[in-house]
Amino acid sequence: MSETAIKTIRRATWVGSIVNIALAGVKISVGKLTGSQALVADGIHSLSDLVTDTAILIGSRYWTAPADKEHPYGHGRFETLTNIFIGVLLALVGIGIGWDALSAIGHEATNSPGMLAFIAAVASIVAKEVLYRWTVVQAKRINSRSLHANAWHHRSDALSSLPVAVAVVANYVAPGLHYLDQIAALLVTAMILKAAFDILWPAIQELTDAEADSDIDVKIQQYAEEVPQIKEVHAIRNRRTGSTILLDFHMLVDPDMSVDKAHAISENFKRYILAQLDEVVDVIIHIEPYTCAERVVNPCCEDKKCDDTNQH
């Protein structure tokens, strides 16, 4: 990972931490002042975002490190573990909000928080939504899955402030409708759990070495067709490690070609692939002779007519 990407991750995380501390202080203070338990709980949720910020700041020190003897494939899986941590924490936050909403059903509100609580909740929604969008832009720019996951944690904080705002408005518009706050909170829970799943599932797929991108197979075949010396490519495999992809495949060349020339072709082809596919950071190419025993895409047979048909 480039130095620019590392600085972007840490800058975005520090900005998020500062905003979280400020919002937590405002929401807890206003919640205490207005008697809004929901706003106090929302402030504590903002503090929980600091946990994921800390996880990224610590984790990025490891997953951005170059490959070494102990980790010859690099340290990308540390980013995967960070994503799992964020996804689990996000799921727990969603479950907590849902549990509080279900527990509150049937209990009438004991206080009217007032407009100050509403202003604090709306300010939180706006600030965290802006932070979410900005963080997503930074994550896409450097292709950081962990930064994108943390962006969703920012949005969960914005969503968790929504029931507080709804409760205040409901108190003014329809004091008799005591369940609007709980219904809004349950909707928020569903959205947060969906975001947690979207973060966790790719990470789980990565840990089980699932294919990272099926489109890569097609692209490699297309690139190979542009090189006359490459007769065939097959056994294309790719897997993700953090925000990067590792790729390997078999490349068939003329059996009479020298080892030096075949190696030069494979190295040039590797450099071309790395230049075309941003996520791919390493390519292993297994060179084979273009013979009947090795051909897969265009198999040949003993029958001359059959062989001629395959070649056409």
Automatic annotation (TrEMBL):
Keywords: Ion transport, Iron, Iron transport, Membrane, Transmembrane, Transmembrane helix, Transport, Zinc, Zinc transport. It is a multi-pass membrane protein. Residues 14-207 form the Cation efflux protein transmembrane domain. It is found in: Membrane. GO terms for cellular component: membrane. It comes from the Bacteria. Residues 218-290 form the Cation efflux protein cytoplasmic domain. The chain crosses the membrane at residues 81-102, 114-137, 158-177. One of its GO terms (molecular function) is monoatomic cation transmembrane transporter activity. GO terms for biological process: iron ion transport; zinc ion transport. It holds the Pfam family Cation_efflux. The keyword Membrane applies. Belongs to the cation diffusion facilitator (CDF) transporter (TC 2.A.4) family. FieF subfamily. This is Cobalt-zinc-cadmium resistance protein. It comes from Photobacterium aphoticum.
